[in-house]
From TrEMBL:
GO MF term list: cytochrome-b5 reductase activity, acting on NADH
EC primary class: oxidoreductase
Protein name: NADH-cytochrome b5 reductase
Compartments in which it is found: Mitochondrion
EC number: 1.6.2.2
Cofactor: FAD
PANTHER family linked: NADH-CYTOCHROME B5 REDUCTASE, NADH-CYTOCHROME B5 REDUCTASE 2
Keyword Transit peptide appears in the UniProt entry: no
Length: 326
């Protein structure tokens, strides 16, 4: 456990200097510093479809390098839970281990897909619940990966994760590439995230900020139910304070007395003031629950392709080429 907690400081190249404490599920006597959490697991409430035309398996590395990657794109691999810890009222951290000579094998922006047994069908064959998650650990880390998962009362997969004990295994497949990010691909990237939809945004943010040659400007609008639901706010605030090319605006539905951010849904005015103007040098990334997606950009199509652009972003003047829906 102690090694697990110490190694959190190596999760990302950008660490938090101030932290909060939480108790470990497996070892209650320990408290630890979440000093380097870079992202949270995403998509906890959404099914993943392998037939999705807009999600492409990353090409498996050939030759010598293929032996350095733990993931296999077309095969479910078991990863053992090393430890777990509670980090908030409904969020837990999970560390999974594998061969210490290998990397997990992720690029930006990509995720993994997990599955868990969910009884049997009428023919007696196993049924599974399947969900995508984004590891929070540095892609260069060897021998482990970390997931930060929001546990929902009715969430079949998140409840399964919450029931795991050290030594239990989870089946994983991937990586799955969503948006292939390259440095300076756009002058200005706007982001709209809701709840756990912050995951892919943080993956892109970290990739930009840790590269001194990447001059991309980033504007993030982050919406949540309450201030307590803002995931990794301390991390985000420190990143924004230390990187002038990152601007963040928070808004919540249920503010507290001391809340100083926005209140209510993201509006057309919020988008116009907080995001870059539509242009060929602009890209807006969107990720959040279905209701928010419908309001902001329209959801993806039934086949999980990008679908038609609607909502506030279309009203403001963005085109489908300027928007990517995670």
């Amino acid at each position: 456990m102690a090694a697990f907690l110490r190694s959190l400081g190596r999760v990302t190249p950008i660490a938090l200097s101030n932290s909060f404490l939480s108790q470990s599920k497996s070892s209650p006597k320990y408290a630890f510093t979440l000093s380097a959490i870079a992202a949270i697991s995403g998509g906890a409430s959404f099914f993943y479809y392998f037939s999705s035309p807009n999600l492409v398996h990353l090409e498996q590395v050939k030759g010598e390098e293929s032996r350095d990657i733990a993931l296999v794109p077309d095969k479910w691999i078991e990863f053992k839970l090393q430890d777990t810890a509670r980090v908030s009222h409904n969020t837990q951290l999970f560390r999974f281990s594998f061969d210490p000579t290998k990397k997990l094998g992720l690029d930006v922006a990509s995720c993994i897909v997990t599955r868990a047994p969910l009884g049997q069908d009428a023919a007696g064959k196993p049924k599974y619940v399947i969900r995508p998650y984004t590891p929070i650990s540095d892609p260069e880390s060897k021998g482990y990966f970390d997931l930060l998962i929001k546990v929902y009362p009715e969430g079949k997969m998140s409840q399964h994760f919450a029931s795991l004990k050290p030594g239990d295994v989870v089946e994983v497949k991937g990586p799955i590439e969503k948006l292939r990010y390259t440095p300076n691909m756009k002058k200005h990237i706007g982001m709209i995230a809701g709840g756990s939809g912050i995951t892919p945004m943080l993956q892109v943010i970290e990739a930009i900020l840790k590269n001194p040659d990447d001059k991309t400007q980033i504007s993030l609008l982050y919406a949540n139910v309450s201030p307590d639901d803002i995931l990794l706010k301390q991390k985000l605030d420190i990143l924004a304070a230390s990187h002038p090319n990152l601007k963040i605006f928070y808004t919540v539905d249920n503010p507290t007395k001391n809340w100083r951010g926005g209140v209510g849904y993201i509006t057309k005015n919020t988008v116009e003031k907080g995001l870059p103007s539509p242009s060929d040098d602009t890209l807006v990334l969107v990720c959040g629950p279905p209701g928010m997606m419908k309001h902001i950009s329209g959801d993806k199509a039934k086949d999980r392709s990008q679908g038609e652009l609607t909502g506030l972003l279309k009203e403001v003047g963005y085109t489908e080429q300027m928007v990517y829906k995670f």
